[in-house]
C-alpha cells in the first residue's frame, strides 16, 4: 500500500508528489519536499549558450571553407591546386568540431529540462534527488556539513558536503548542491538529517 500523503508533499505538483511517494521506503517520513527555482539554471545556461554560439560559428566557417576546397578539388577545376587528399582531410577534420558545437547549443535545453523535472525530498532517513527515472540518495552517515548560499542572480542554494571513498581508499569531499532552493524548512530538515548521523546509535 502506498504511504499516506505527508503535509510536506502538499506543495508539490501531483506528478512530483507521486514520484516522491514511489521512492519512499516503509515507515519513511518526508520532512521537506520541493522543486528548485528553474531560473537558478539561467546563468549556467547563458554561459553555455554564449560559448556554444562562438564555438559553432567558428567551426561552421571553417567547415564551409573546407567543403569549398573539397568541392573545388573533387568536382571543380581545383583552382587552388589543393591535393584531393588534403581537401578531403580538411573537410573531415572539421565535422567533429561542428557536432561538438551543436551539442553545446543543445545543452541549455537539457539543463532547463533537468531543472524543471528535478524534485528534492528530505526524509527522516536521507536526501532524495529525483530527475525523471533517475534517483540519487544521500544518507546521513555521509553528510559532513550543510551550508546556505545566497547569490545575487540565481537566489539561494543549499550545499550539502559529504564524503565519498575512492578506489585507492582515500576520501575526498564531494558536495551536492540544491541550486534554486532557498527555503528555511529545507535547511532545517537537512541539518536534522546531519545531526541524526552524529547521535550515538542505541545498542
| SS-based class | alpha+beta
Helix content: 40-55%
Number of strands: 7
Q: What is the alpha-carbon Rg in Å? A: 25 Å
Name its key features.
203 residues; alpha+beta; four-stranded antiparallel sheet; three-stranded antiparallel sheet; 7 strands; 45% helix
Would you kindly provide a written description of the structure presented here, covering whatever features stand out?
A hairpin with a 2-residue loop joins strand 3 (127-131) and strand 4. 45% of the residues lie in helices and 25% in strands. The mean pLDDT is 81. The chain contains 4 helices and 7 strands. It has helices spanning 14-23, 42-74, 84-117, 184-198; strands at 30-34, 118-123, 127-131, 134-138, 143-151, 155-165, 171-179. Strands 1-2-3-4 form a 4-stranded antiparallel beta sheet, sandwiched between helices. Helix 2 packs antiparallel against helix 3 (84-117). With 203 residues, the protein is α+β, with helices and mostly antiparallel strands.
Amino acid at each position: 500500500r502506498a504511504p499516506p500523503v505527508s503535509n510536506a508533499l502538499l506543495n508539490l505538483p501531483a506528478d512530483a508528489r507521486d514520484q516522491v511517494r514511489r521512492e519512499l521506503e516503509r515507515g519513511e517520513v518526508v520532512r521537506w519536499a520541493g522543486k528548485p527555482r528553474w531560473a537558478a539554471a539561467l546563468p549556467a545556461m547563458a554561459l553555455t549558450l554564449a560559448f556554444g554560439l562562438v564555438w559553432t560559428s567558428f567551426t561552421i566557417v571553417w567547415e564551409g571553407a573546407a567543403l569549398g576546397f573539397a568541392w573545388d578539388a573533387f568536382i571543380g577545376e581545383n583552382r587552388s591546386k589543393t591535393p584531393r587528399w588534403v581537401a578531403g582531410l580538411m573537410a573531415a577534420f572539421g565535422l567533429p568540431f561542428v557536432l561538438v558545437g551543436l551539442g553545446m547549443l543543445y545543452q541549455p535545453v537539457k539543463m532547463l529540462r533537468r531543472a524543471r523535472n528535478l524534485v528534492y525530498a528530505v526524509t527522516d532517513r536521507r536526501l532524495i534527488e529525483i530527475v525523471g527515472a533517475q534517483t540519487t540518495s544521500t544518507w546521513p552517515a555521509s553528510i559532513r556539513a550543510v551550508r546556505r548560499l545566497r547569490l545575487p542572480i540565481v537566489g539561494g542554494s543549499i550545499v550539502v558536503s559529504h564524503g565519498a571513498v575512492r578506489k585507492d581508499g582515500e576520501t575526498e569531499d564531494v558536495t551536492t548542491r540544491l541550486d534554486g532552493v532557498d527555503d528555511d524548512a529545507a535547511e532545517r530538515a537537512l541539518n536534522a538529517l546531519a545531526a541524526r548521523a552524529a547521535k550515538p546509535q542505541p545498542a
